[in-house]
Each structure stands twice: as structure tokens, then as C-alpha cells.
Model the fold of this input.
Amino acid sequence: MGWRFQRNKKYPIGGLRGPRRSAGRKIGEHAAGSGWFRIVPATDPDPFYLVRSGRADAVLVAPPGGLTWALSRGKGQAQLLVDATNAIKGRVIESYMNAILRRTIADENHNSETVPPSLSFDVRVLYNPTLQTSAYLVPGVMGLILCLVTILLASMSMARERELGTFETLLAAPVERWEIFLGKTLPFMILGMADVPLLVGLGVAGFHVPLRGPLWALFLAAGVFVGTTVCVGTLISTFAKNQQQAMMGGFSFSFRPSNYPGVMAPIENIPGPSPPFLGQPLRFFVSLTRQVMLKGTIGPFYWTNLGALAFLGMLGRQRQCPSVPANWRDPKEFAIKKISLAIIHIICYI
Amino acid sequence: MTSLSIEVTDVYKKLGPNQALAGVTLCLEEGGLYGVIGPDGAGKTTLLRTIMGLFHPDEGRVAFRIENKAASFDQARPLIAYMPQQQSLYPDLSIKEHLEFFRDLYQISDDVYTARRQRLLRLTRLEKFEDRPAGQLSGGMYKKLGLMCALLQTPSALLLDEPTNGVDPISRREFWDLLYELRGEGILILMATAYMDEAERCGEVHLMEAGRIWTYGPPRTILEKEKARDFAELFVRRAEGSQGK
Done:
């Protein structure tokens, strides 16, 4: 039997393997009773897989024969696997689980917590053994820089064309709308993608962030992310009357999510319901970067986040190239854009 | 040159609460120099944008004929050059860079481009200023550069939206000389302007007010019919008449 814990009744923080109606069960009840964890049945017998796939942030592995048997014999060794891609979260899980385990063992021994435990407890910190905060923060900063560069450039560039009046000339030229859109977005996608090796190189060489996963996965995630942010940038530009408005729109879109959990702080801190497939583009990209760089795995988590990013990009792509060139907007097209941006904003701030 | 004629039939277009075009009909034949004259907000720009396909008419239609055969807008579009009213050039690009940019935009071959570029620079007398950024050109030079960019593709029709707005009298005269030269080559020219004196230079004028064309014909004929000395007087009299009502 296996157990999984999630904090705030939302996200996995710990895991436990052991027989039902045993000491393991009591640990689970203590953990759930603390209000910090949620217990979910484990779907895979491999404890490492549970952490690697992101299903659990920690797994407690019982000694051979189970916890109850080890406690009755008075010796044994339990192991706690902690996902420390976020060093702060890793430390919190470790200290909470330590306290819960000590209390459970004391209860099992019908003794006080001051008596030395009969079970040794081994904590194994995965992916970030030295618990460096830079391993968590650097991918967040990387995503933020990419987001800012692409959204601001794309939104301001299109707004500049409108402001100068050159957009009307482009629309009147014998070129298709998609050609204009591609011409206005492709340079920023190339610029954004050119930043990726620089940022990754700096993170690895300057901040010693490990790069465990394949580079193609990182570049694929970056490509989809840059495409999404460029689309969002051009969508913002359709609402902006001038470059200043486009810049403010780009900043508000980039900075508000950056302060949100999931980018620079753990996502578990989000109050209220947070559907797992929703969130701002930055959150998805940063999760992908951490998954690839720190865990080095590509699984359902990777593809789900990539799909969510692509979906947001498709929403952002919604008719950014207007047929109306000047200061007047076609009500139907404007309404479609408004709805698209509203959906993106709702998704981003849920 | 490929001949192109344009027929606008009973076109209506509403922009927000304003009825910008309220049943406009006009027929533009190849080689003609047409003027759409009217005060600000009469609907001149909306008319040009509708012909250019930037606005879709709410009612009515814009039809094109290439070599006397009915053609779609997509077929006619490469033959129409449009010079918008708003400043439409990149201030940090030089004249030379602008021409190269529009060469790429219109996909003009190198040899055709070289010959056309020389001719346009000679016509506009801008050879000496090739390396000057557009942002540093005078008003007249700026308008001429805009016209050069529009003419680079050798169009059959030229739509000009207030091209001489804010240009000094000498540059305006040069600009008109250029337009006459182009008309001589068989290019259909449709020009929207708020300058009443320019109306008399056109072959046929369409006087526009509140989204409607209230009269049209050769300038002299209209003035004789309305018993007015010039178009400015005609519009002032009309405005005063509508206020009196």
C-alpha cells in the first residue's frame, strides 16, 4: 500500500509506503490531520517514480517487513525521499515529516518523545542535495527574462507600426495577413530563442544549476513558450493605442505572474482552487525548465505542461492582425480579441 | 500598362455610431484624375480605405475591371498603390532604405527596381538626399518619398489620401506636376483632399459631405452650374445654407 500527501489539500508533498492498519497508516493520519498534507493512493510501486513524475513531493519508504514490524522488533530504517527542486519546500517537508514520525514512533512505543526512537530515519534529498535556492530561482529568472523580452518587443513593435501609421501601408501592400503577422513576430521568436542558450549557459556555469535532461526538451519548451509570449504580446498590442500602453500592458502581464507562486515561490501557496492544467504561460515554462534541468525527466508532466502552453498560445494568436488599420476597430474583431485576452487573464489569475 | 477601372456602387459603411459612407457611387476610368473633395469628416478617407479593401462595406459593392474584364479584389490589389493620409514612413530609415524595403514588400526584380528607382528619384528630385532618414526630411520631401514608395510597383491606379496636406505651395506645385506626368502614362489617380483650390486641378471632382457625394463632374462645369467663383465659396455657401435650415 502506498500513501501520498499534498499540502493545502492540493499539491503533493509527501509519500508513504507500508501496510494498512499499521504504523504507516497512523503516520498518514497524523500528516493529514496536521492540515499541511493530503494523502492520495500511490499509483506506482516505485517510490522514485512518484517523485520523478511530480505525483509526490516526498515518499516515505518503510523498512523491509513494514513499519509496524520494524517498530515491534525495535529496530529498522525508514527512508524519506524528498523532492528538493525547491529547496525551501524540501526543508519544510523534511522538518514536518521528522516531527510527525517522531511523534508516531513515540505513540507506537507508548512512550514520550524524549525516549530515543527505536527506528532510524534516513532523509534522502533528491535533485538538489545541497538544498541550494539558486537551483529553484534561476529557472524562474530565466523564464521571466524570456517572457519580458518577447512580450515587450512584440507588443511595442506592433503598437509602433500603428502609431506611425505604417501598419496601414503594410495592410494595403499586396501581401497576405499571415505574412505580415509572421514578419512582425518571427524576429522576436528568433531573438527569444537566441537568449535561451545564453541563459542556460549562465545558469549552468555561473550558478551551478544542473542540466540533467536532454537539451532538445528544453529548447522545445522554450520554443513553445516564446511562441506563446509573442502571441500574447501581439494580442496586447491590438489593444494599445501607443507604445507606452503596449509597454505597460506587457509589464503588467509579465510582472504580476512573476510574483505569483509557481515562478519564484511554490505554487502550493495559491489560495483557493487551482486546476492543474491552468496557469500563466510563465508558470508552465518554469515548471518545464525545472523538470528538465533539475529532474532530467520527460514524462506526462512535461507533455501536459507543454500542451497547456501551446493552448494559451493558440488563444493569444486569435486574429492579432486586424483588417482595420487606424484608430477605429471593427466591433466584431475587437470583441473576439477582448474575449481572448479575458480568457487568458482568467486562466492566468486562477 | 494594364488598364484598371473601379466602380463603387451605393456603398454604405458605419464606423461606430457614425455613418461614414451613406450610399456613395462613383465610376473611375483608367487614366482619369479624380478628386474627392470635402471638409474634414466627410468620409473621404473611409471611401479610399473601402476601395483599398481595408474596410468591408456594410452595403453596396466595389467592382474592378482589368483590361475591361471583371476582376476580383485580389487580382486588382497588386495594381493599386495607396498612399495613406497618416504619415506612413519609418523615420529612422533613409530614402534608399525605404525604397529597398518597398522593393522587397512588392517583390520587384532587381533590374526593374534599378530602372524605376532612378526614374522616381529624378522625377522627385530627391537624388541628393538618398541617405537622409525620413524623419529629417521636409514636409514636401516626405510626401514625395511616400509617393515614390507607392509608385515603385508601377500601379495602374493610385489612391492618394490628402497627399499635399501640410506641404508648402512650391512643393505642392511640384507634386501636382508629378501627378500630371503620371496621368499622362495612363495611371488612374483618385485623390482625396480638403484643399478646395486643388479641386480645380482634377479632371473630375466628386464633392462629398456627410458620407454622400452631392455632386460630381468637371470642376468648371460644377462651378458654372452652382454659380460659384471657386469650390471654397461653394462649400461655405452650402455650410451656411445647412445652418440656416
Summary: Chain A touches chain B through 17 residues (CB under 8 Å). The beta strands of chain A are 2-7, 11-17, 58-61, 77-83, 120-126. Chain A has a mean pLDDT of 74. The CA atoms of residues 261 and 268 of chain A lie 7 Å apart.
